[in-house]
Amino acid sequence: MNKTILTIGRQFGSGGHIIGKKLAGALDISFYDKELIALAAKESGLCGEVFEKTDERTSRGLSHVFSVGIPYPGGFYTPYADIISNEGLFKIQSDVIRKLAETESCVIVGRCADYILRDHPGCISFFIHDKLANRIRRISERQQLTAEQAKELIAKTDKSRAAYYDYYTNKAWGMSCSYNFSIDASALGIDETVCFMKNFIERRSATVE
To answer: pTM value?
Structure first.
């Protein structure tokens, strides 16, 4: 049975997460975003906090985890220092993504999944973006921030995601040429964007079959 793997890159606050989750529900397939962290931790035997702290961040994030360490009476210790590199964590997560793609149809959000699965015949990559005003409003409401605070968080998060993606893929995060489809969520709205993507996937699957 052919697997359909949909990867979604997204600007922070663009609605990419909810679009991916709704799309997975509409297609009755699995959805993975933060769930990948738990799977990577289980696969490796490492603490989930390590993956959480470095999630879609470059080496600076890992250095922070190791430099801070884990508190215990009398001081701190760093159980993973010198054991695994940032590239090692990326490989673990990449292996988890490849294994998922081999076993089931699913939607995967972020984490360079489009690049990791670039040779998978059933993989279709999307990038979701939106107008800054919409993103600011969405983040302000979700995290109870002022518009200025939301704007700063958006810029910081997008910069981090771009650095992570560019470093591991040698492609440009957010550029249309890096993905099969680049979609402006403001053109249709969240629900209509999901319908548009669902209809495309179903027509494509029928053609392939």
So the answer is: 0.85
